[in-house]
Amino acid sequence: MPFIQNSDNDLKAMLKRIGVENFEELLDSIPEDLRKNNDFGFSKALSEPEVKKHLYTISKNNKNCIDNISFLGGGIYDHYIPAVIDHIVSRSEFYTAYTPYQAEVSQGTLAVMYEFQTLVNRLTGMEVTNDSMYDCGTALAEAAHMARVITNKHSIIVSETVNPQYIDVIKTYSYGLNIPIIMIPSINGITDIEEIEKSIDNDTSAVIVQSPNYFGMIENMDRISEIVHKNNLLFISVYDPISLGILKTPGEYNADIAIAEGQSLGNYQAFGGPLLGLFSTRKKFLRQMPGRLVGLTEDIDGNTGFVMTLQTREQHIKRDRATSNICTNEALCMTRAAIYLILLGKNGLKEISETCLRNSHYLFDELIKIDGINPLFNGLFFKEFAVKLPIPSDILIAALEKKGIYAGIDLCKFNKALSNSILISVTETKSRIELDKFIDEVKIFLN
Q1: What CATH number labels 69-81+345-446?
Q2: Whole-angstrom distance, CA of residue 239 vs CA of residue 403
Q3: What is the C-alpha to C-alpha distance for residues 170 and 142, in angstroms, rounded to an integer?
């Protein structure tokens, strides 16, 4: 059992109870030639991710073992998840916790929510964070609606470099209210800032920009923030939580609302869900923020306790005063994110960010050395980049999948003009051997 300490006496008692002298006797039913001896090939002390990868390599001796390397990204990423997260969230206090409406029976849940709020505030440099939302797309659409309420203006400016799936959600939310969505084009994979200035009018409420954007490029958020606030609008930032280990935070470039997908914080890719929407804002906008907020208080006897301070949805207040129809938060995913951030700390997050940066730039530099492969854009990127191929992307993707490599996202799915372009994500989980395998397979196929 993981994380449970047993003394030698405990082990002897258990073995005696089941009627064997030692653990090895339990393996007698397995043929000798199929057993692995106790030498797992550890030549030195290894970190947890290295141990897991080493044991997984050994497990590939099993029949029908599937070994795929994923370079998929576009909003959901393959980051390492420390084993202790699974252990902690599997405790009944968390996965069967009672709904936090009644504070007297859900102090543990409320305490985690409170810690989560604090952690994300520190991560982003923002003043207020709610207790999560369904995913980044819905959180971003809620942010757009919130901006309209605050400014009493109607239209929203959105950069085309924002994740196209998030843009679709914004448009869906906006359809019934007839909210004008003004799309801003990009130049070389970066938002055209001059077009933002030209598009602002008396009915504009907010500007939405993502950095690193969908193509992995780093936007000039300081300059955009300056323009937005000069025109008395709200600046809605979409960020990658992992990138904040080395990049400027939304608080540092003065975002009014900061939104992110929190899946990368200790949550599995899980075929696309469940996900975790992070939603932060300034304290002065607290009353217009959707979702839940937990506060710290004292009871009549002076004991510290946690309470649901704010939940401005239609079930709790008059419908015309509700800020959102969001009905819940992603409590278990939120708990995983809180544990992940606590485990890593500031230095750990920085190390992961730097490893992502180093791995992605190594792969990028090697790929563009191959004849026919060129950068789709030139500029700064974090852990994701796009390259242009000499053949349609879907052909290369299908070929590499047969070799056990998920090469990336075919950008043609979102823009027909990018039929020969592929979006590749590289995280800290990729070893140099895996990166070189990707490079070699691409060379073999193209040559």
Answers
A1: 3.90.1150.10
A2: 33
A3: 8
